[in-house]
Amino acid sequence: MVFGVKDALYKLGRTLTSTDEVLPNTPDSRNTTPNPPELYHTATDSNLFANSNPNDFDDMDMLPPVNLKGYLPTTKNRLLTVEMCDEIRSLMPTRIQLYNDWHLLYSLEQHGASLHTLYNNITPDDDVNRRIGYVIVIKDRQNGIFGAYANDPWLPHENKRFYGNGECFLWKLEKVPELVIKESADNTLQRTQTEHRKWQFVGYPYTGLNEFAIYCTSEFLSMGAGDGHYGLWCDSSLLRGVSYPCDTFGNETLSKEGPKFHINGVEIWRVG
């Protein structure tokens, strides 16, 4: 089931008591790591939000426009636009939304297809002590755009597997026809579609059903898990990925290609 920003914010408010609470690395989480993606055969539908009744939310205050920093003049396949950033940051914590500078830390086109290089590029500097966020953007072969937001960078940890907190979420962006409301000759209002298409953001916030927010190794990076499925998974070559519905975020399959997809582009952005 697809939910927009209002539904996502409502669910996030119900499931989180504190957005700063770090997910514990429990023995249970270490013993229930999902099977490798190559063993997957079917996806499981998720109806976690089927009975939710979100309240109306006021329109968000105007935020400063996003500045995308880090693209080279020669970069041809740029995955993000300012319009897309405005959609993605609508589900970020308020303090992160206020940052208008987004810094490109890794780009598959600019830095090459290597998970090791990705990890090296996004390792935080020692002098960064403020709260910041991270966005991964993925493009598949069918030009689908999707990814994740994390409160911590995607890095392997020796003493723990799953980490991150309830601010993490998965997302996807889809191009949809823009609707225009016009008054007809009989004074009734009619909705018509225009040729112009706009980005529609679909967010999948942390549900609180398990603690599998972020998990990275030298062989892959992932977000979300449950019932043997990863919500988002990328291999070490950054050429292939997996996305199944998972309990952590209550998401649908993110890629237009299906549960298993080919990666045409990857970018990691630091927000703040």
TrEMBL record:
- Biological process terms in GO annotation: response to oxidative stress
- Main localization, broad class: mitochondrion
* Keywords of this entry: Mitochondrion
Cellular component annotations (GO), alphabetically ordered? mitochondrion; nucleus
Mitochondrion: is it a keyword of this entry? yes
Instruction: Give the start-end ranges of region Disordered.
Output: 19-42
Q: Which InterPro entries is this protein grouped with?
A: TLDc_dom
- Domain TLDc positions: 78-272
Q: Where in the cell is it found?
A: Mitochondrion
Q: Name the source's superkingdom.
A: Eukaryota
Q: Which Pfam families match?
A: TLD
Q: Where is the composition biased (Polar residues)?
A: 19-33
Q: What family is this?
A: Belongs to the OXR1 family.
- Name-wise, this protein is Oxidation resistance protein 1
Species name: Maudiozyma humilis (Sour dough yeast)
